[in-house]
Design brief:
The complex is a heterodimer of chains A (188) and B (200).
Chain A: H1 8-16, H2 20-42, H3 45-61, H4 72-90, H5 103-106, H6 115-118, H7 125-133, H8 137-147, H9 153-160, H10 164-187
Chain B: H1 8-19, H2 26-38, H3 47-56, H4 58-78, H5 94-103, H6 106-114, H7 119-126, H8 136-148, H9 155-167, H10 171-184, H11 190-199
Helix pairs in contact in B: 8-10, 9-10, 9-11
Classes of the chains: A mainly alpha (188), B mainly alpha (200).
């Protein structure tokens, strides 16, 4: 198996045993997803950059490995999430992820499940970002972990310490709202 | 069971993945990659490599050399010698003898000076040359010879020693001692003296 096809875990192990090139492959795989996750969750480029840098540096300097059933990807996003929450706590900023949002109360009937209509969604990056920021924080987090972290629902449930059913409903409501917001943007 | 077909949720996630325009800044990329290269964990050498490296360090070389030296010394000290050669440098009984000889009357002294040097010290110094691989009989003979070659006070006493050796069955030693006496006292009739002593 070539280095490019190696698993994240074996690349991390190779880096820890002194192979510097293994880190470059690992970084190239996850740089974009992690940054987009942090930017989407924090909503501030400066803060996202700071946490992004802290996350990678702690991984470089740490000797720990993903524990238990966690794979590298889950572990990486867990570190980043914890760092962001630490930052909010340190600066006395209210953690929006702790807000309990009543999805049922804010649910809007969604009639745009037709894939054909997805083609009319806005592709403008700025509009996508704005739509994301309109989501409640807990829904946004689940959606970002799914979209940019490419984690499956049980992994998201473990990472956010949330019941699987809650994760599913948050993701569903997030998708519905995004579809509505982006479609509206296109239509107006 | 996971459904392989893409759901509308997956389509939305894919849409965001494909059209989100943001990227980590280039300066962050280079900073993180540089940090990773700078702090690459040092490769841990194997046990054998560590051993070789330790052997290359002077302080360990000294330590190992000292250890080997001590081991060699212990091995040498603990090895029991088969036959320790005797080094009788001090002629124990010869000192009083010398005093006596100097105290003797001039005639006796002259006789002593005329005679060849006593064989005892020479025999003692010659002892180390003896072979270590003597068998028991040879060792016994050597002991007897040594005893026979011990410092003598006079010719008579040495002849008595010859008689004693003959009586005790050490004929070879007795003959050797007698031959030595013949060499040292060529003017003396040792055979007759020996007969006289036998009679007495």
């Amino acid at each position: 198996m070539s280095a490019a096809e190696s698993s994240d875990e074996s690349l991390l192990a190779r880096y820890r045993s002194g192979d510097g090139s293994a880190f470059e492959i690992l970084y190239a795989r996850h740089r974009q997803g992690l940054y987009r996750f942090l930017l989407g969750l924090s909503g501030k480029a400066e803060l996202a950059e700071e946490v992004y840098q802290d996350t990678w540096l702690s991984l470089i300097r740490s000797t720990s490995q993903p524990q238990g059933r966690a794979n590298f990807r889950t572990w990486l996003y867990q570190i980043a999430r914890n760092r962001l929450i630490d930052h909010w706590r340190k600066h006395g900023i209210h953690n929006p992820l702790h807000d309990s949002y009543d999805e049922q109360a804010h649910a809007v009937i969604d009639n745009t499940a037709d894939p054909e209509q997805l083609l009319s969604l806005s592709r403008d990056g700025q509009r996508l970002e704005t739509a994301l920021q309109n989501l409640p924080a807990d829904q946004r987090e689940v959606f970002l972990l799914r979209a940019h972290g490419e984690l499956d629902l049980p992994q998201i449930a473990t990472l956010t310490e949330t019941p699987l059913e809650t994760v599913k409903s948050r993701l569903r409501y997030a998708q519905q709202k995004l579809r509505r917001l982006l479609a509206e943007e296109v239509l107006t | 069971m996971t459904d392989a077909r893409p759901t509308p949720e997956d389509e939305m996630a894919k849409h965001f993945r494909e059209h989100a325009a943001v990227e980590p800044p280039a300066h962050l990329d280079s900073f993180i990659l540089a940090a990773a290269q700078r702090e690459v964990p040092v490769r841990r050498p194997s046990l054998w490599q560590r051993w070789v490296q330790a052997c290359q360090k002077p302080r360990w070389q000294v330590a190992f050399a000292s250890l080997v030296g001590v081991a060699l010394m212990l091995a040498l000290v603990q090895r029991s010698p088969e036959q320790t050669p005797g080094y009788d440098f001090a002629p124990k009984a010869s000192a009083p003898q010398a005093k006596k000889e100097f105290a003797e009357p001039p005639a006796a002294a002259a006789r002593s000076f005329a005679a060849p040097a006593p064989v005892a010290p020479m025999a003692d110094f010659a002892a180390p040359a003896r072979s270590e691989s003597l068998n028991a009989e040879m060792a016994e003979e050597a002991k007897v010879s040594k005893r026979a070659a011990a410092p003598v006070k006079s010719l008579d006493e040495q002849l008595r020693e010859v008689l004693r050796l003959q009586k005790s069955g050490h004929q070879q030693a007795a003959d050797k001692l007698l031959a030595d006496l013949h060499k040292r006292y060529p003017d003396e009739n040792l055979t007759s003296k020996l007969k006289e002593l036998k009679k007495n």
